[in-house]
Amino acid sequence: MTDELATTPLDALHRQLSAKMVPFAGYAMPVQYPTGILAEHIHCRAAAGLFDVSHMGQVMLQGPQAAAALEALVPGDIQGLPEGRIRYSMFTNPQGGILDDLMITNAGAFLLLVVNAACKEADFAHLRSQLPADLLVEPLRDRALLALQGPAAAAVMRRLAPGSEDMAFMSFRTLSVAGISCWVSRSGYTGEDGFEISLPNAHAEALARHFLADPLVKPIGLGARDSLRLEAGLCLYGADIDASTTPIEAGLAWSISRRRREGGGYPGASVLARQLTEGVGRLRVGLRPEDKAPARAHTVITLADGRPVGEITSGGYGPSLSGPLAMGYVEPAYASPGTALMLVVRGLARPARVVTMPFVPHRYRKG
Amino acid sequence: MSKIYFTKDHEWIRIEADIGTVGITDYAQHALGDVVFVELPDLGRQVAQGAEAAVVESVKAASEVYAPVAGEVTEVNEAIVVDPALVNQDPQGQGWFFRLRLANPAAVEGLLDEKAYDALIRALE
Predict the structure, then answer these.
(1) B39 neighbourhood in chain A, CB within 8 Å
(2) Are residues A78 and A202 in the same domain?
(3) Does B78 lie at the interface with A, CB-CB under 8 angstroms?
(4) d(C-alpha B31, C-alpha A310), whole Å
(5) With 60 as the cut, is the pLDDT of residue A2 above it?
(6) Subunit contact B59:A37, Cβ cutoff 8 A
(7) Which of A228, A245, A272 is where one domain is finished?
(8) Each residue of A186-195: pLDDT tens digit?
């Protein structure tokens, strides 16, 4: 099996850094480096971490009325997305379920979409089959994606790309980074300030080495990427959201503008409109176990009397919290912060409390 | 004099008279990564050979620790509950999990000795 895995342009670098490589979405990916997930996580919140996210799908959408056409597939406001800005949205199915979540950038001459690795081939096919034939749908298989995240990311980036420090959160620019022309986004998946940098495969290792030459920067694997995003309250596709969950149930209604709520015109729009007015049967919430036992995905959530009211979709240990945390779905009556619930871990009901997310405050760049 | 045995599931058991001290091997702690939580058996519990006796969790996943042989739990290591990182730092010393009074001291002869366990993990690496 191992030899069938795809590799990213940083594969040799990961191995040189003695990463523990695991299969993920068909790619050999670093789950951790020798210092381990805890140290990587803490370092990213204290200084800066470099992530290889080249397995993710990048696709260019180009042609007349691309934004209007894309709105037929996503509930986000894409026509209202100014040039140089990024928006989070999702592909929905006719039931309002989420086929994938994605970042959409108005890059001026085209729209840049970044989608999940495990969904990318299906997403490319979806775009090709659903969008008008005069739109160019071009998967950018020759581009790598690096993420530089953490409170020191801006200072590190400024040394290699003067001017990048002024970029607003969720903005996009084409910049020369260490002499390499890159597509730079002020965004990320950790709750920290940072950048996501798309560049040609051929230059990816050189740029990664430039970043890693800075003593503030350490490489971060998928293990810490998951614990960081969980503390930030961000959804993982396939765990917290999937084709059976809607953006309303998932607490992602903020990503749907008033115009799109009222105008519809995307798959499942009527379902979502109904859920927005009549409510939903379940809501995504954050949970903090009151003892130390982590509660993992698929843990049953009950009331004190044992009645099941939901299920955990992501859970584990939060290194920045020094304790367990989870997110999952519960009946709306039990979704208010402070609600006492039980988590059934190894047959034992253990107390937990609904909390507001993020678990660790976001530290995105303001303005 | 103590003697140490191992299981294919990467537990070790050090025998002194009829008491066995149980933990996970260096290979196991390395494979798990940073240990962040352990759950130990109740004192006095009778555990069967191969039964789940403790739980060890890393950031990523939970794993069971099985009793290498049958016995009664006589002592647990509260130090690793307070500081789970001891399991990573000193898996065959301060990172021990629990002690058993062996139901049948001869049962350890069915386990792996150090040489056989070393051969097993060499084959895995």
Answers:
(1) 293, 346
(2) yes
(3) no
(4) 32
(5) no
(6) yes
(7) A272
(8) 999 999 999 9
